[in-house]
Amino acid sequence: MIKDLSPIDKAKYVAACRAADLVQSGMRVGLGTGSTAAWLVRRLGERVRDEGLSIKGVPTSTATAQLAREEGIEVISLDQAGWLDLTIDGADEFDGEFNLIKGGGAALLQEKIVATASDQMVVIADAGKEVETLGAFPLPVEVIPFGWQTTRTLIEEALDTMDVLGTSVTLRMNGEAPKVTDEGNHILDLHLKRIGNARQLALVMNQIPGVVENGLFIDICDKVIVGHGDGRVELRDLNEGTVLTNMLGEGGDNLFSDLAD
Ligand SMILES: O=C(CO)[C@H](O)[C@H](O)COP(=O)(O)O
Fold first, then answer.
1. In angstroms, what is the span from residue 56 Cα to ligand 1's centroid?
2. Per CATH, the architecture of 7-131+219-247 is what?
3. Which GO terms describe its biological process (predicted)?
């Protein structure tokens, strides 16, 4: 039941429902990873079953691939798709220019490849993800396991030369063992008090041997759909401005049928 969701989950849910409305039959769609993206996949699954929506989905993680298949969405690889019409994904932070931090779910590598191979990337997020300046959320950096401690030292040395404050770099764990990504790598989380120049930081990180990719998404996202716990949804476009709707008010027929009451 929708009323049983926490305000944050309601916000994620309505943002995902609004984004699902952007998807049309025939599209090749990048499917993000995380709890917000999972709502999107479920909603698209419902549209596939109820409306005959015909799409091909390119998942950004094994978890999303499994959910998409369970929902009856046709899953193909990025190489089979070649190029995508649209990617919809969550984010850990977004700023006023739609730059992002991603990778809280450890899927940043596939997420960045898929988003970059798309005509459009749309981010779906609850309002709490909006920040004035990126960096309160620890910045995930995916590194290969070989020599990861040396890579961490190189990252720390690079950060020392940059306009960042109070740095600590931690290995993401999964219980007692290092977290292993879908690509068999590890994640280093950079706890930065100030991120400084995000564009420069992203470039510097990717120059370091052992670094595969970083979670800064600069100039990749085209639209942000911001959900609020009361059902309001803002569709924000840097060029076209903001369109506000309420997904839980009158005409809230975008709700999943099994949650609608
Ligand atoms: O980047 C991600 C996964 O790598 C997610 O999009 C991000 O962590 C947001 O997750 P959620 O929707 O669960 O808040």
1. 22
2. 3-Layer(aba) Sandwich (3.40)
3. D-ribose metabolic process; pentose-phosphate shunt, non-oxidative branch
How far, in Å, is the centroid of ligand 1 from the Cα of 88? 11
> Where does the chain show beta strands of DSSP type E?
28-31, 56-59, 74-75, 86-89, 93-94, 100-101, 121-126, 139-143, 168-171, 173-174, 177-178, 186-191, 211-214, 216-217, 223-227, 232-237, 241-246
Average pLDDT score over residue span 184-197: 93
pLDDT tens digit string along 48-67? 999 999 999 999 999 999 99
Is CATH 3.50.50.60 the classification given to domain 139-212?
no
CATH 3.40.50.1360 placement within the chain? 7-131+219-247
* Residues near ligand 1 (Cβ within 6 A): 32-37, 89-92, 102-108, 111
Atom of ligand 1 nearest to the CA of 36: 12
